Amino acid sequence: MARDMSDKDILKMEIDQLQKEVKTAREPVSKTAKELCDFVETQSAEDPLIKGVPEDKNPFKEKGGCIIT
Amino acid sequence: MAAQEVQPSETIAKLKSESEALKTKLEEERAKLHDVELHQVAEKVEPLGQFVMKTRRTLKGHGNKVLCMDWCKDKRRIVSSSQDGKVIVWDAFTTNKEHAVTMPCTWVMACAYAPSGCAVACGGLDNKCSVYPLSLDKNENLAAKKKSVAMHTNYLSACSFTNSDMQILTSSGDGTCALWDVESGQLLQSFHGHAADVLCLDLAPSETGNTFVSGGCDKKANVWDMRSGQCIQSFETHESDINSVRYYPSGDAFASGSDDATCRLYDLRADREVAIYSKESIIFGASSVDFSISGRLLFGGYNDYTINVWDVLKGTRVSILFGHENRVSTLRVSPDGTAFCSGSWDHTLRVWA
Protein backbone atom coordinates (compact mmCIF):
# COMPACT_ATOMS: atom_id res chain seq x y z
CA MET A 1 0.00 0.00 0.00
CA ALA A 2 1.31 3.44 -0.94
CA ARG A 3 0.94 4.74 2.60
CA ASP A 4 3.23 2.03 3.96
CA MET A 5 5.95 2.45 1.36
CA SER A 6 9.12 4.42 2.01
CA ASP A 7 9.84 7.48 -0.12
CA LYS A 8 12.62 5.54 -1.82
CA ASP A 9 10.30 2.69 -2.78
CA ILE A 10 7.71 5.10 -4.09
CA LEU A 11 10.34 6.82 -6.25
CA LYS A 12 11.57 3.48 -7.60
CA MET A 13 8.00 2.52 -8.48
CA GLU A 14 7.57 5.86 -10.25
CA ILE A 15 10.79 5.44 -12.23
CA ASP A 16 9.84 1.92 -13.37
CA GLN A 17 6.48 3.18 -14.48
CA LEU A 18 7.89 6.21 -16.30
CA GLN A 19 10.40 4.06 -18.20
CA LYS A 20 7.50 1.99 -19.52
CA GLU A 21 5.37 4.99 -20.36
CA VAL A 22 8.06 6.77 -22.37
CA LYS A 23 7.81 3.87 -24.83
CA THR A 24 3.99 4.01 -25.23
CA ALA A 25 2.73 4.08 -28.83
CA ARG A 26 1.09 7.43 -29.55
CA GLU A 27 -0.86 9.01 -32.39
CA PRO A 28 -0.87 12.67 -33.42
CA VAL A 29 -3.59 14.87 -31.90
CA SER A 30 -4.67 15.98 -35.39
CA LYS A 31 -5.78 12.40 -36.05
CA THR A 32 -7.25 11.52 -32.66
CA ALA A 33 -9.05 14.86 -32.17
CA LYS A 34 -10.73 14.42 -35.53
CA GLU A 35 -11.88 10.95 -34.45
CA LEU A 36 -13.32 12.37 -31.20
CA CYS A 37 -15.26 14.97 -33.25
CA ASP A 38 -16.44 12.35 -35.76
CA PHE A 39 -17.70 10.11 -32.94
CA VAL A 40 -19.71 12.96 -31.42
CA GLU A 41 -21.19 13.93 -34.79
CA THR A 42 -22.46 10.42 -35.45
CA GLN A 43 -23.97 10.19 -31.97
CA SER A 44 -25.38 13.67 -31.25
CA ALA A 45 -28.47 13.24 -33.37
CA GLU A 46 -29.59 10.63 -30.84
CA ASP A 47 -28.44 12.47 -27.70
CA PRO A 48 -31.63 13.36 -25.79
CA LEU A 49 -29.92 16.05 -23.75
CA ILE A 50 -28.84 17.83 -26.95
CA LYS A 51 -31.78 17.42 -29.27
CA GLY A 52 -34.44 17.52 -26.56
CA VAL A 53 -37.27 15.08 -26.05
CA PRO A 54 -40.96 15.91 -26.58
CA GLU A 55 -42.76 16.45 -23.26
CA ASP A 56 -45.02 13.45 -23.70
CA LYS A 57 -42.16 11.04 -24.41
CA ASN A 58 -39.72 11.88 -21.61
CA PRO A 59 -40.66 10.30 -18.30
CA PHE A 60 -38.83 13.01 -16.40
CA LYS A 61 -40.63 15.93 -17.90
CA GLU A 62 -43.34 17.51 -15.80
CA LYS A 63 -46.68 15.77 -15.75
CA GLY A 64 -49.75 17.90 -15.33
CA GLY A 65 -52.51 17.15 -12.84
CA CYS A 66 -52.64 14.48 -10.14
CA ILE A 67 -50.65 11.29 -9.94
CA ILE A 68 -52.37 8.37 -8.29
CA THR A 69 -49.76 6.06 -6.79
CA MET B 1 24.37 -5.97 -3.77
CA ALA B 2 23.66 -2.86 -1.69
CA ALA B 3 26.66 -0.67 -0.96
CA GLN B 4 27.54 -0.59 2.70
CA GLU B 5 28.28 3.12 2.82
CA VAL B 6 25.23 4.46 0.95
CA GLN B 7 23.85 7.73 2.32
CA PRO B 8 20.04 7.37 2.21
CA SER B 9 19.47 11.06 1.40
CA GLU B 10 21.88 10.95 -1.56
CA THR B 11 20.11 7.95 -3.05
CA ILE B 12 16.73 9.63 -2.74
CA ALA B 13 18.05 12.79 -4.39
CA LYS B 14 19.45 10.72 -7.26
CA LEU B 15 16.19 8.86 -7.68
CA LYS B 16 14.29 12.13 -7.67
CA SER B 17 16.41 13.62 -10.43
CA GLU B 18 16.10 10.40 -12.45
CA SER B 19 12.35 10.59 -12.05
CA GLU B 20 12.28 14.25 -13.09
CA ALA B 21 14.43 13.50 -16.15
CA LEU B 22 12.06 10.71 -17.21
CA LYS B 23 9.03 12.95 -16.72
CA THR B 24 10.64 15.58 -18.95
CA LYS B 25 11.41 12.95 -21.58
CA LEU B 26 7.82 11.68 -21.44
CA GLU B 27 6.49 15.20 -21.96
CA GLU B 28 8.87 15.72 -24.90
CA GLU B 29 7.69 12.51 -26.56
CA ARG B 30 4.07 13.54 -26.02
CA ALA B 31 4.70 17.07 -27.30
CA LYS B 32 6.07 15.75 -30.61
CA LEU B 33 2.56 14.63 -31.55
CA HIS B 34 0.77 17.70 -30.19
CA ASP B 35 0.33 19.19 -33.63
CA VAL B 36 -3.06 20.81 -33.13
CA GLU B 37 -5.58 21.70 -30.41
CA LEU B 38 -8.90 19.86 -30.05
CA HIS B 39 -10.90 23.09 -30.16
CA GLN B 40 -9.21 24.00 -33.46
CA VAL B 41 -10.24 20.71 -35.05
CA ALA B 42 -13.70 21.34 -33.56
CA GLU B 43 -14.14 24.69 -35.32
CA LYS B 44 -15.92 22.86 -38.12
CA VAL B 45 -18.42 21.26 -35.72
CA GLU B 46 -21.91 22.75 -35.53
CA PRO B 47 -22.29 24.98 -32.47
CA LEU B 48 -24.78 23.88 -29.83
CA GLY B 49 -28.16 25.54 -29.48
CA GLN B 50 -29.65 27.02 -26.35
CA PHE B 51 -30.12 24.73 -23.39
CA VAL B 52 -33.09 24.51 -21.12
CA MET B 53 -32.33 22.06 -18.39
CA LYS B 54 -34.29 22.14 -15.17
CA THR B 55 -34.73 20.13 -12.03
CA ARG B 56 -37.54 17.68 -12.82
CA ARG B 57 -37.46 15.64 -9.61
CA THR B 58 -36.08 16.29 -6.14
CA LEU B 59 -35.39 13.21 -4.02
CA LYS B 60 -35.65 14.04 -0.33
CA GLY B 61 -35.08 11.61 2.49
CA HIS B 62 -31.42 11.50 3.42
CA GLY B 63 -30.68 12.95 6.84
CA ASN B 64 -27.28 14.27 5.93
CA LYS B 65 -24.90 14.96 3.01
CA VAL B 66 -25.44 12.82 -0.09
CA LEU B 67 -22.02 11.48 -1.07
CA CYS B 68 -22.59 9.13 -3.99
CA MET B 69 -25.23 7.88 -6.40
CA ASP B 70 -25.60 5.45 -9.29
CA TRP B 71 -28.30 4.62 -11.84
CA CYS B 72 -29.81 1.21 -12.37
CA LYS B 73 -29.68 -0.09 -15.97
CA ASP B 74 -33.48 0.18 -16.02
CA LYS B 75 -32.98 3.98 -16.34
CA ARG B 76 -35.40 4.77 -13.55
CA ARG B 77 -33.99 3.46 -10.29
CA ILE B 78 -31.22 5.21 -8.40
CA VAL B 79 -29.14 4.17 -5.41
CA SER B 80 -27.67 6.89 -3.19
CA SER B 81 -25.54 6.92 -0.05
CA SER B 82 -25.03 9.49 2.64
CA GLN B 83 -22.92 10.69 5.55
CA ASP B 84 -25.74 9.55 7.83
CA GLY B 85 -24.94 5.92 7.04
CA LYS B 86 -28.06 5.31 4.95
CA VAL B 87 -28.20 3.80 1.48
CA ILE B 88 -31.52 4.41 -0.31
CA VAL B 89 -32.90 2.97 -3.54
CA TRP B 90 -35.35 5.34 -5.28
CA ASP B 91 -37.72 5.15 -8.18
CA ALA B 92 -36.71 8.41 -9.88
CA PHE B 93 -39.93 8.63 -11.96
CA THR B 94 -42.19 8.66 -8.89
CA THR B 95 -39.59 9.80 -6.26
CA ASN B 96 -40.69 6.89 -4.06
CA LYS B 97 -38.13 5.15 -1.84
CA GLU B 98 -38.08 1.44 -2.57
CA HIS B 99 -35.41 0.23 -0.15
CA ALA B 100 -33.35 1.66 2.65
CA VAL B 101 -30.36 0.14 4.42
CA THR B 102 -28.55 1.50 7.46
CA MET B 103 -24.83 0.85 7.27
CA PRO B 104 -22.81 0.25 10.45
CA CYS B 105 -20.64 3.27 9.61
CA THR B 106 -21.16 6.90 8.74
CA TRP B 107 -19.75 8.50 5.55
CA VAL B 108 -20.86 5.94 3.01
CA MET B 109 -18.74 7.43 0.26
CA ALA B 110 -19.37 4.87 -2.44
CA CYS B 111 -22.36 3.05 -3.83
CA ALA B 112 -23.10 1.24 -7.06
CA TYR B 113 -25.97 -0.61 -8.71
CA ALA B 114 -25.38 -4.15 -9.96
CA PRO B 115 -25.86 -4.63 -13.72
CA SER B 116 -28.76 -7.02 -13.06
CA GLY B 117 -30.51 -4.41 -10.91
CA CYS B 118 -30.84 -7.04 -8.20
CA ALA B 119 -28.19 -5.78 -5.78
CA VAL B 120 -26.32 -2.71 -4.66
CA ALA B 121 -22.77 -2.32 -3.33
CA CYS B 122 -21.64 0.31 -0.86
CA GLY B 123 -18.95 1.24 1.65
CA GLY B 124 -16.98 4.08 3.18
CA LEU B 125 -15.36 4.59 6.55
CA ASP B 126 -15.80 0.91 7.36
CA ASN B 127 -12.97 0.28 4.82
CA LYS B 128 -15.14 -2.37 3.19
CA CYS B 129 -17.36 -2.80 0.18
CA SER B 130 -20.51 -4.79 0.96
CA VAL B 131 -23.14 -6.13 -1.41
CA TYR B 132 -26.85 -6.15 -0.51
CA PRO B 133 -29.21 -8.23 -2.65
CA LEU B 134 -32.41 -6.24 -3.20
CA SER B 135 -35.45 -8.11 -2.11
CA LEU B 136 -38.83 -7.82 -3.79
CA ASP B 137 -40.33 -8.06 -0.32
CA LYS B 138 -40.24 -4.51 1.00
CA ASN B 139 -40.50 -5.72 4.57
CA GLU B 140 -37.46 -7.92 4.41
CA ASN B 141 -34.46 -6.74 6.37
CA LEU B 142 -31.81 -6.17 3.70
CA ALA B 143 -29.02 -5.93 6.25
CA ALA B 144 -29.49 -9.61 7.10
CA LYS B 145 -28.39 -10.70 3.61
CA LYS B 146 -25.37 -8.40 3.48
CA LYS B 147 -22.18 -9.84 2.01
CA SER B 148 -18.80 -8.29 2.81
CA VAL B 149 -16.73 -8.40 -0.35
CA ALA B 150 -13.78 -6.01 -0.25
CA MET B 151 -11.40 -5.18 2.59
CA HIS B 152 -9.07 -2.24 2.39
CA THR B 153 -6.83 -0.75 5.06
CA ASN B 154 -8.42 2.67 4.73
CA TYR B 155 -11.71 4.20 3.58
CA LEU B 156 -13.51 3.00 0.48
CA SER B 157 -13.76 5.94 -1.94
CA ALA B 158 -15.45 4.34 -4.96
CA CYS B 159 -16.80 1.03 -6.20
CA SER B 160 -18.19 -0.33 -9.43
CA PHE B 161 -19.44 -3.70 -10.65
CA THR B 162 -17.72 -4.89 -13.82
CA ASN B 163 -19.91 -6.24 -16.65
CA SER B 164 -21.62 -8.68 -14.31
CA ASP B 165 -22.78 -8.95 -10.71
CA MET B 166 -19.83 -11.26 -10.06
CA GLN B 167 -16.94 -8.82 -9.79
CA ILE B 168 -16.43 -5.47 -8.11
CA LEU B 169 -13.69 -2.92 -8.59
CA THR B 170 -12.85 -0.69 -5.62
CA SER B 171 -10.62 2.28 -4.84
CA SER B 172 -9.43 3.32 -1.42
CA GLY B 173 -7.77 5.88 0.81
CA ASP B 174 -5.08 3.23 1.23
CA GLY B 175 -3.71 4.22 -2.19
CA THR B 176 -4.77 1.11 -4.08
CA CYS B 177 -7.53 -0.17 -6.33
CA ALA B 178 -8.63 -3.79 -6.25
CA LEU B 179 -10.77 -6.28 -8.16
CA TRP B 180 -12.83 -8.73 -6.08
CA ASP B 181 -14.94 -11.83 -6.66
CA VAL B 182 -18.32 -11.09 -5.10
CA GLU B 183 -19.28 -14.67 -4.28
CA SER B 184 -16.10 -15.64 -2.43
CA GLY B 185 -14.80 -12.21 -1.40
CA GLN B 186 -11.47 -13.20 -2.93
CA LEU B 187 -9.03 -10.55 -4.11
CA LEU B 188 -8.48 -11.18 -7.83
CA GLN B 189 -6.09 -8.35 -8.66
CA SER B 190 -4.67 -5.33 -6.93
CA PHE B 191 -3.45 -2.13 -8.54
CA HIS B 192 -0.52 -0.25 -7.02
CA GLY B 193 0.88 2.97 -8.39
CA HIS B 194 -0.85 5.91 -6.76
CA ALA B 195 1.28 7.67 -4.16
CA ALA B 196 -1.71 8.80 -2.07
CA ASP B 197 -5.45 8.18 -1.57
CA VAL B 198 -7.33 7.02 -4.67
CA LEU B 199 -10.59 8.96 -4.85
CA CYS B 200 -12.38 7.72 -7.95
CA LEU B 201 -12.48 5.16 -10.71
CA ASP B 202 -14.36 4.38 -13.91
CA LEU B 203 -14.46 1.26 -16.09
CA ALA B 204 -13.89 1.52 -19.82
CA PRO B 205 -17.01 0.92 -21.93
CA SER B 206 -17.16 -2.84 -22.44
CA GLU B 207 -16.43 -2.68 -26.17
CA THR B 208 -13.01 -1.17 -25.54
CA GLY B 209 -11.63 -3.97 -23.44
CA ASN B 210 -10.44 -4.55 -19.93
CA THR B 211 -9.17 -1.25 -18.63
CA PHE B 212 -10.19 1.29 -16.05
CA VAL B 213 -9.04 4.74 -15.00
CA SER B 214 -8.46 5.99 -11.44
CA GLY B 215 -7.76 9.43 -9.98
CA GLY B 216 -6.12 10.35 -6.70
CA CYS B 217 -4.81 12.84 -4.20
CA ASP B 218 -1.41 12.51 -5.88
CA LYS B 219 -2.95 14.56 -8.78
CA LYS B 220 -2.50 11.59 -11.09
CA ALA B 221 -4.98 9.83 -13.33
CA ASN B 222 -3.85 6.27 -14.08
CA VAL B 223 -5.16 3.89 -16.73
CA TRP B 224 -4.88 0.21 -15.72
CA ASP B 225 -4.98 -3.17 -17.43
CA MET B 226 -7.45 -5.16 -15.33
CA ARG B 227 -5.94 -8.55 -16.11
CA SER B 228 -2.27 -7.82 -15.48
CA GLY B 229 -2.63 -5.17 -12.78
CA GLN B 230 -0.21 -2.93 -14.70
CA CYS B 231 -0.59 0.79 -15.09
CA ILE B 232 -0.59 1.43 -18.85
CA GLN B 233 -0.73 5.23 -18.96
CA SER B 234 -0.49 7.99 -16.39
CA PHE B 235 -1.37 11.67 -16.56
CA GLU B 236 -0.24 14.33 -14.10
CA THR B 237 -1.47 17.73 -15.26
CA HIS B 238 -3.97 18.61 -12.55
CA GLU B 239 -2.77 20.88 -9.78
CA SER B 240 -4.73 19.24 -6.99
CA ASP B 241 -6.70 16.12 -6.00
CA ILE B 242 -8.65 14.41 -8.77
CA ASN B 243 -12.15 13.81 -7.39
CA SER B 244 -13.81 12.21 -10.38
CA VAL B 245 -12.88 10.42 -13.62
CA ARG B 246 -15.22 9.32 -16.41
CA TYR B 247 -14.60 7.63 -19.75
CA TYR B 248 -15.71 9.30 -22.97
CA PRO B 249 -18.46 7.13 -24.54
CA SER B 250 -16.16 5.81 -27.29
CA GLY B 251 -13.57 4.71 -24.72
CA ASP B 252 -10.82 6.67 -26.47
CA ALA B 253 -10.61 9.43 -23.87
CA PHE B 254 -11.62 10.28 -20.33
CA ALA B 255 -12.52 13.40 -18.36
CA SER B 256 -11.49 14.35 -14.84
CA GLY B 257 -12.70 16.84 -12.24
CA SER B 258 -10.36 18.26 -9.63
CA ASP B 259 -10.00 20.47 -6.57
CA ASP B 260 -7.98 22.78 -8.83
CA ALA B 261 -11.37 24.00 -10.18
CA THR B 262 -10.81 22.55 -13.65
CA CYS B 263 -12.10 19.60 -15.58
CA ARG B 264 -9.81 18.13 -18.23
CA LEU B 265 -10.02 15.77 -21.17
CA TYR B 266 -7.27 13.21 -21.81
CA ASP B 267 -6.99 11.51 -25.20
CA LEU B 268 -5.75 7.94 -24.68
CA ARG B 269 -4.40 7.39 -28.19
CA ALA B 270 -2.55 10.71 -28.32
CA ASP B 271 -1.50 9.99 -24.72
CA ARG B 272 -2.03 13.56 -23.53
CA GLU B 273 -4.38 16.14 -22.10
CA VAL B 274 -6.28 17.75 -24.99
CA ALA B 275 -8.67 20.14 -23.28
CA ILE B 276 -9.08 22.12 -20.05
CA TYR B 277 -12.55 23.23 -19.01
CA SER B 278 -12.12 26.23 -16.77
CA LYS B 279 -13.05 29.85 -16.24
CA GLU B 280 -11.52 32.54 -14.05
CA SER B 281 -14.84 32.83 -12.29
CA ILE B 282 -14.82 29.17 -11.30
CA ILE B 283 -12.62 28.88 -8.23
CA PHE B 284 -14.16 25.96 -6.36
CA GLY B 285 -13.28 22.33 -6.94
CA ALA B 286 -15.14 20.06 -9.32
CA SER B 287 -16.34 17.01 -7.42
CA SER B 288 -17.93 14.90 -10.16
CA VAL B 289 -18.12 14.72 -13.94
CA ASP B 290 -20.06 12.76 -16.54
CA PHE B 291 -20.65 12.89 -20.31
CA SER B 292 -23.94 13.01 -22.19
CA ILE B 293 -24.33 9.85 -24.30
CA SER B 294 -22.85 11.37 -27.46
CA GLY B 295 -19.86 12.75 -25.59
CA ARG B 296 -20.62 16.30 -26.76
CA LEU B 297 -21.55 17.59 -23.30
CA LEU B 298 -19.61 17.29 -20.05
CA PHE B 299 -21.54 17.92 -16.85
CA GLY B 300 -19.48 19.00 -13.84
CA GLY B 301 -20.75 19.26 -10.27
CA TYR B 302 -18.84 21.80 -8.19
CA ASN B 303 -18.21 22.74 -4.58
CA ASP B 304 -19.76 26.18 -5.22
CA TYR B 305 -23.16 24.41 -5.42
CA THR B 306 -23.46 24.74 -9.22
CA ILE B 307 -23.38 22.40 -12.20
CA ASN B 308 -21.47 23.66 -15.23
CA VAL B 309 -22.25 22.18 -18.64
CA TRP B 310 -19.29 22.21 -21.08
CA ASP B 311 -19.05 21.77 -24.84
CA VAL B 312 -16.45 18.99 -24.82
CA LEU B 313 -15.10 19.70 -28.33
CA LYS B 314 -15.06 23.50 -28.35
CA GLY B 315 -14.01 23.87 -24.71
CA THR B 316 -16.65 26.47 -23.85
CA ARG B 317 -19.28 26.49 -21.14
CA VAL B 318 -22.80 26.18 -22.54
CA SER B 319 -24.84 26.42 -19.37
CA ILE B 320 -24.69 26.84 -15.60
CA LEU B 321 -27.34 25.15 -13.47
CA PHE B 322 -28.39 26.41 -10.05
CA GLY B 323 -30.57 24.66 -7.54
CA HIS B 324 -28.54 22.84 -4.95
CA GLU B 325 -28.04 24.61 -1.64
CA ASN B 326 -24.68 23.11 -0.85
CA ARG B 327 -21.80 21.34 -2.61
CA VAL B 328 -22.64 19.03 -5.46
CA SER B 329 -20.86 15.81 -4.52
CA THR B 330 -21.93 13.29 -7.15
CA LEU B 331 -23.39 13.37 -10.67
CA ARG B 332 -24.32 10.68 -13.22
CA VAL B 333 -26.09 10.74 -16.56
CA SER B 334 -28.85 8.12 -16.88
CA PRO B 335 -28.08 4.98 -18.94
CA ASP B 336 -30.17 6.13 -21.91
CA GLY B 337 -29.00 9.74 -21.64
CA THR B 338 -32.44 11.27 -21.14
CA ALA B 339 -31.56 12.88 -17.81
CA PHE B 340 -28.83 13.24 -15.25
CA CYS B 341 -28.93 13.07 -11.46
CA SER B 342 -26.90 15.14 -9.00
CA GLY B 343 -26.46 14.56 -5.27
CA SER B 344 -25.46 17.23 -2.80
CA TRP B 345 -24.38 18.07 0.72
CA ASP B 346 -27.81 19.77 0.93
CA HIS B 347 -29.17 16.21 1.61
CA THR B 348 -31.07 15.98 -1.67
CA LEU B 349 -30.71 14.50 -5.13
CA ARG B 350 -32.04 16.25 -8.20
CA VAL B 351 -32.92 14.77 -11.57
CA TRP B 352 -32.41 17.22 -14.46
CA ALA B 353 -33.68 17.02 -18.02
From TrEMBL, chain A:
Residues 53-69 have a biased composition (Basic and acidic residues). Coiled coil: none annotated. GO terms for molecular function: G-protein beta-subunit binding. It comes from the Eukaryota. Pfam families: G-gamma. Keywords: Cell membrane, Lipoprotein, Membrane, Methylation, Prenylation, Transducer. Residues 1-69 form the G protein gamma domain. GO terms for cellular component: heterotrimeric G-protein complex. SMART domains: G_gamma (SM01224), GGL (SM00224). Guanine nucleotide-binding proteins (G proteins) are involved as a modulator or transducer in various transmembrane signaling systems. The beta and gamma chains are required for the GTPase activity, for replacement of GDP by GTP, and for G protein-effector interaction. Belongs to the G protein gamma family. G proteins are composed of 3 units; alpha, beta and gamma. This is Guanine nucleotide-binding protein subunit gamma.
UniProtKB/TrEMBL annotation, chain B:
It holds the Pfam family WD40_Gbeta. SMART domains: WD40. InterPro entries: G-protein_beta_1-5, WD40/YVTN_repeat-like_dom_sf, WD40_G-protein_beta-like, WD40_PAC1, WD40_repeat_CS, WD40_repeat_dom_sf, WD40_rpt. Signal peptide: none annotated. The keyword Coiled coil applies. It comes from the Eukaryota. Keywords: Coiled coil, Repeat, Transducer, WD repeat. WD repeats lie at residues 59-100, 149-190, 191-234, 235-276, 288-320, 321-353. GO terms for biological process: heart contraction; optokinetic behavior; signal transduction; swimming behavior. Residues 12-39 form a coiled coil. May interact with RGS9; this interaction stabilizes both proteins and increases RGS9 GTPase-activating protein (GAP) activity, hence accelerating the deactivation of D(2) dopamine receptor-mediated signaling. Belongs to the WD repeat G protein beta family. This is Guanine nucleotide binding protein (G protein), beta 5a.
